[in-house]
Amino acid sequence: MLTAVELAMIRIRRRQARRSLARPVVQGMAEPVDLNTLTVIDAVDEGASEEGRDVTVGFVADRLAIDPSRASRIVADAVKSGFVRRVASQEDGRRSCLELTRSGREAVAAAHRTRQSFYSDVLEGWDPDEQREFARLLTKFVRSLDDATRG
Known about the structure:
Elements lengths: L1 H17 L3 H6 L7 H14 L8 H8 L3 H13 L3 E5 L7 E5 L1 H21 L5 H23 L1
Antiparallel strand pairs: 1-2
Helix pairs in contact: 3-4, 3-5, 3-6, 4-5
């Protein structure tokens, strides 16, 4: 069983490294988006959905599992490109937070549509109960991964 999980994860990782899904997302957008900017947009969008959470460069670094200096550079590029803006924290005005601009919200919505369409095609032959169970177990697995890598 663990061998099967390991092999499946290796195949998923290879696909992710090739960015085979990210390229169609970027190509399908009205405005050109760099792949690194897309990862920042996704992280900012994810953080914005977490109630009461300041989305900072540190948050982006954590979500992307990169060092803060690299996160700072790619966030700066996302800001320069007009997809993300810096705003003062509501908790501490000295702290800079990140939020999506209108272009950023449009880009993340287009990314969600493209990815969900792809996954819909992949899961098309699956029974609806299998799809729900897969979603439940995959979410549980990702939470376990997060817990294991935080400690």
